[in-house]
Amino acid sequence: MKYPILFSLVLFVLSCNIPDPAPADLNNRPSAKDTLHFFSKNVNDSFTVYINLPAGYRSDSSKHFPVVYLLDANLYFDIMATVLNNYTAVGLTPPVILAGIGYKNFQTMDSLRNRDYTFPTAIPEYEMPVSGGAPQFMAFINNELAPALDRQFRTDTLQQTLMGHSLGGYFTCYALQQRLAGKQQRFRNYIAASPSLHYNNYFLLNEFKKEVPVHHDSLNVYITFGGLEKQDSLCRQLSLLLPSGITKKIDTYSALDHMDTQLPSFIKGLQWQAAPGQP
Q1: Who has the most CB within 10 Å: 50, 132, 186, 190?
Q2: Are strands 220-226 and 97-102 parallel, antiparallel or unpaired?
Q3: Structural domain boundaries enclosing 225
Q4: What does the alpha-carbon distance between residue 279 and residue 272 come to, in Å, rounded to a whole number?
């Protein structure tokens, strides 16, 4: 369940349908990157949160921006901030506040993500020293982190996205399931790259089966798998389980494996959510 240190990072997806680039505003580049530190009473631990503000944030004090919460930020924040800054400058992604939730260092992340991204406690065969803390981590985001960022920055509280990969994708799907069950209302958009839905004998899929969802307030859900993961049947099952009232898209990147899907999924997902319902 841990990341290898080195793996291939894919930046472009050839199948993306993207708009014609807008002229770059090279005199109005991103204005700030901040590193914030939070102690969570819910998790009883500290987190490092990385903030990237979009170009134009300082120049227009009346404008509020969508927030994208990125998991595994020790690994993905720097490269995603760079890609978003450059893509936004040429009109390929919308301007957003990127909030990366991380730990004090990569080694800590590689250990504690098992604790924070999973529920319920792992079965013995996974050999996870700590696990099952997703409810506490969800409470940290909903009740501590997000309200603090809403106070400190000009956030659009109605347009907030959660995205993660692998176990981070599992937590993203867990947050969606909690939203469908009426237990959290923070996120409208969900991007899950290669979510580890096999966790605990497909526990989360069984939870989706139990839900009888009602009104879902225009939720947008983008989930991907790599074709080399051989998850075709899981894709079909997941598509059928997600309620028809939400806007959903499940993509398979045919040439990619589990550790290759994160960056193209994040970028494509943000582009798709800017115009949900597009093929």
Answers
A1: 190
A2: unpaired
A3: 32-274
A4: 8
Look at residue 205 in the predicted model and tell me its pLDDT.
Answer: 93
* pLDDT of 113: 97
CATH code for the domain of 124: 3.40.50.1820
Residue 18 counted as domain residue = no
Low-confidence ranges of the chain (pLDDT < 70): 1-32, 211-217, 276-279
The pLDDT, as a whole number, for residue 153 is: 95
pTM for the model? 0.88
Which pLDDT belongs to residue 210? 82
- pLDDT the model gives residue 14: 31
Residue 177 falls inside a structural domain:
yes
Q: Per the structure block, which two tokens stand in for 253?
A: 């990147």
Domain count, the chain: 1
Task: State residue 61's pLDDT score.
Answer: 87
Task: Outline where the chain has alpha helix (H).
Answer: 73-89, 106-116, 134-139, 146-152, 167-180, 199-210, 232-241, 262-274
4-69-52 Cα angle (round to 5): 95
In a domain, 279, yes or no: no
Alpha carbon 2 to chain centroid, angstroms: 18
- Burial of residue 74, with CB atoms counted within 10 A of its CB: 0-12 exposed, 13-18 middle, 19 or more buried: buried
CA torsion 17-21-25-30 (nearest 10°) is: 10
Q: CA torsion, points 72, 109, 167, 18, in degrees to nearest 10? A: 10
